[in-house]
From TrEMBL, chain A:
GO terms for biological process: transmembrane transport. Part of the ABC transporter complex MalEFGK involved in maltose/maltodextrin import. Probably responsible for the translocation of the substrate across the membrane. This is Maltose/maltodextrin transport system permease protein MalG. It holds the Pfam family BPD_transp_1. The lineage of its organism: Bacteria, Pseudomonadati, Pseudomonadota, Gammaproteobacteria, Oceanospirillales. Belongs to the binding-protein-dependent transport system permease family. MalFG subfamily. It comes from Halomonas campaniensis. Keywords: Cell membrane, Membrane, Sugar transport, Transmembrane, Transmembrane helix, Transport. It is found in: Cell membrane. The chain crosses the membrane at residues 12-33, 71-96, 108-131, 143-163, 184-209, 244-262. PROSITE patterns: ABC_TM1.
TrEMBL record, chain B:
Gene3D superfamilies: 2.40.50.100, Nucleic acid-binding proteins, P-loop containing nucleotide triphosphate hydrolases. It comes from the Bacteria. It comes from Halomonas campaniensis. It holds the Pfam family ABC_tran. Keywords: ATP-binding, Cell inner membrane, Cell membrane, Membrane, Nucleotide-binding, Sugar transport, Transport. CDD domains: ABC_MalK_N. One of its GO terms (cellular component) is ATP-binding cassette (ABC) transporter complex, substrate-binding subunit-containing. This is ABC transporter. The lineage of its organism: Bacteria, Pseudomonadati, Pseudomonadota, Gammaproteobacteria, Oceanospirillales. Residues 4-234 form the ABC transporter domain.
Amino acid sequence: MNTSKRWLPHTFKIALLTLLLLWTLIPIIWMVLSSFKSNDIITAGTPRVFFTPILEHYTSLFSSGNSLWPYLLNSLFIAGVSTLIAVVLGCMAGFGLSRIRIKGKQHLAFWIISTRMAPIAAVIVPLYLLFRYLYLLDTHAGLIVAYLSFNLPFAIWLMTAFFDDLPPDLEEAAMIDGATKLQAFRYVVLPLMTPGLVTTAILCFIFAWNDYAFAQTFSGPNTQTIPIAAAQLLTQTGIDWGKLLAIGTIVVCPMAIAGLLVKRWLVKGLTLGAVK
Amino acid sequence: MATLQLNNIVKDFGGTQVIKGVDLEVKDREFVVFVGPSGCGKSTLMRMIAGLESATSGDILIDGERINDVGPADRGLAMVFQSYALYPHMSVEDNMGFSMRLAKVPTAERREKVLAAARILQLEELLDRKPRALSGGQRQRVAIGRAIVRNPSIFLFDEPLSNLDAALRVQMRIELARLHEELDATMIYVTHDQIEAMTMADKIVVLQGGVVEQIGSPMALYHHPANLFVAGFIGSPKMNFLDVEIRRADAEGVDVVLPGGDCRVPVEGDGVSIGDKLTLGIRPEHLKLDDQGALTGKILVIERLGGTTSLYLEKGDSQWILVADGDVTSRVHDQIRFSFDPACAHLLKGNGDALPHRHRHPLADIDRKENGGLSV
Ligand SMILES: Nc1ncnc2c1ncn2[C@@H]1O[C@H](COP(=O)(O)OP(=O)(O)O)[C@@H](O)[C@H]1O
Ligand SMILES: [Mg+2]
């Protein structure tokens, strides 16, 4: 009786999830598959499911006169450094914000995260002017700062939430055990914060890695990132679909894997077996 | 050797005074229990002793030295938290050895000391486990073990048994009392459970609303409560209260009006006069069924515990409890008469203060050691 009642909604749920999965995955699968097809097959009127995979688009991306390497290194460096700074500062600020006892703490926390809520378009012009005065246009530092302006408040906010979940009893126990505040942080708090740190790092990295608007505005010949390289393939004389899809694959795949990792960590959450 | 002294300790949390001037002296090797209802400031007081919270004003002295400005790491104390606060990412052995690791004690010596503490607490089998693989009682032991390993001058316990089930709680209570005997250390213990306080303490500190209501041995609090709050808080089941009026007061005692005739309670009657309204307090176990008794009540509920029977009585518009023998034959709805020995009664003034008894109870000032070891 009971199972037959739940049977219908259950199939419905499965169907809905399947649809959603197809909706999300098909473009990505199409992109990845097509990046191994020759341009003729990609642009043919009828899509081909079976084909001989070729690596031509990838090899030409990295070998031709305009190699993708500098773009890739710029992306890795800028996203990596801005993530590192955001996580380190976010961790410290989040810990402070979570543990401090002051009036209006939630207002302070809200103000910090509210700076992350501004649309990118709204900050681009002021940042551009600022960067021009500070000679930060077409520098790695400039883009790192631009990404930090969004990632830092986000990292602080996320880390505050993770620290809020960690009972202060643990640090206090460590301090009574003879630890200084720093030792308590190093030996007790930090190891328990790994899920929070990894989650924050991956989310910050994704933001910087995927960004097009900031890179388009602030970068120059020396600092262009992968999304810019992709955009450069959209020329007035035509679109090189094969290369474009290969770049797309290079951009998306690491992030998709990282996304799965975040999910694993987030689901795992903080396992605090020692408290209660 | 460790004594603790608190002088006029005040704690202010953003404008609200939570501890309102506490004075206390803890002797070496004493087992002191802070007891009081939830939110009365017990944990706050303990955390100030531990150094986790600073005192807004007043002095905290350990062995006569003011330590207000000494950090928690350097006070030489150990604390067992209500949540146990075990480090989830460390094994039991590492949890217990953490303080020694910080102090850079060599590994071999560390292991030896952890093993010694583990032996006392029967934790040897569990040394490699992580806290999440332990039961509540085992976590409790690890937390205590972590404290023992430090060999502290003073042990602090903040409601350590409140997350355990009833049977385990009784067992750990006995174990803690045994531990106190064995380690011969000064211990301060926080609880809201007056039974834990009565059974373990050398000295009980009754707190309410950030104020010390009374300090004394369990028997002193039981036989000589200083005020209405302590009278009602200490003892289980709770003391019965009745509004009475003074007929006569002199050096021998105070006569109060009861329905079945006057009653002379042997308390000092200074400062009260005829006609004053008082509260008479009498414990359930001091009431006895008596066909000639001065008091009457109707039985609402009977709880038979085997050895004793609790009779819940309707008496006027208040409810009383009478603890009788296990084999009383009374039934629900019976109208019964009962009496009490006036020497066991307490008289409390309108402001809550008790009139002092003229004679000290012989057990009131005996400490536990003279009492022949464990009082559990
Ligand atoms: N960090 C704090 N900030 C503000 N108020 C607090 C803080 N800690 C405790 N209090 C308040 O102090 C009072 C006493 O708390 P506590 O010492 O934990 O009581 P107990 O341990 O007796 O239950 C409570 O009213 C509580 O709300
Ligand atoms: Mg408490």
